[in-house]
Amino acid sequence: MQAQRHSKQRDAILENLCSRYDHPTAEDLYFSLKPQIPALSLATVYRNLAQLESDGKIIRIESGTTKRYDGNINLHYHLTCLDCGGVFDIFLNDDCGLCQKAAESFDGKIVSHSVLFTGYCPSCSKQAG
Amino acid sequence: MQAQRHSKQRDAILENLCSRYDHPTAEDLYFSLKPQIPALSLATVYRNLAQLESDGKIIRIESGTTKRYDGNINLHYHLTCLDCGGVFDIFLNDDCGLCQKAAESFDGKIVSHSVLFTGYCPSCSKQAG
DNA sequence: TTCGTTAACGATAATCGTTATCGTTAGCAT
DNA sequence: ATGCTAACGATAACGATTATCGTTAACGAA
User: Fold this and answer.
1) Other Cβ atoms closer than 10 A to B44
2) Does domain A75-129 have CATH number 3.30.1490.190?
3) Which residues in chain A have their CB less than 8 angstroms from residue B96's CB?
4) How far is CA B117 from the centre of its chain?
5) Closest nucleotide to A44: CA versus each C1'
6) Domains of chain A: which residue ranges?
7) 0.70 cut: is pTM over it?
8) Which CATH class is domain B1-73?
9) Number of neighbours of residue A125 by Cβ within 10 angstroms
10) pLDDT tens track of chain B, all 129 residues?
């Protein structure tokens, strides 16, 4: 296995992702970084997101058709708004014993977990209900 | 809005899905039903899965690239095996207070939730670890 | 500092799951 | 039986992601 080389593009992608809280798609990041790195290719964004994810530096959110990414790797959950389609963070103090209970009732090995809520975000729930 | 009509295809899809526990993809169901309904079209499978899902009769599992479906609509969670790629059921008695805690700490409205564990299924965890 | 190796890049073609289109079929109310 | 149109089957289109390939640049060794 070869050493991973440093790259401006990967740095920029990670930095951009960690500085925002809207859980962008690969394309969102691409357009966000394009002014800063005009020669950037969308393929490079996908490549680096995959790499950063397998390195455990970012999180992939499986929400609907398009994958979204999160630079916050601390334990937290997400909610997809049925109205605006946005993805929002939900911070709990712990996992509510979910992993322990799951480990007790499942005859396999649990490595990680993710929770995806659906509902209405603060803004949309105030407007309509 | 027009009334939903009955169709053999939809019946067969729902029945097939409810009789199995492997969380098949649309294509899995298509090939499974093809001998029984030779004229079946893959588009029909997709159409009916979407309809059954919006009717609340089945559940869609967002696991990786391909959507999978589950005929069991009772509360339970899933685990994706990192080894074999299969999706397995995890039954807990309740949601461990997840929804309540989330509602308390989130200024929006929560409608539903899903939990996806990753790890190793019983069979794969016995073989390797 | 220069050189050689090759990881990573940019551009773009290919892939693949899913959705849309459209002419035909069949469920069901009249 | 007849008419209306939801649902069908076949297939084209779509969109997100991945693979390919020639070029560029990171970085260890000379």
Assistant:
1) 19
2) yes
3) 96-98, 101
4) 14
5) C9
6) 1-73, 75-129
7) yes
8) mainly alpha
9) 18
10) 578 999 999 999 999 999 999 999 999 999 999 999 999 999 999 999 999 999 999 999 998 889 999 999 999 999 999 999 999 999 999 999 999 999 999 999 999 999 999 999 999 999 865
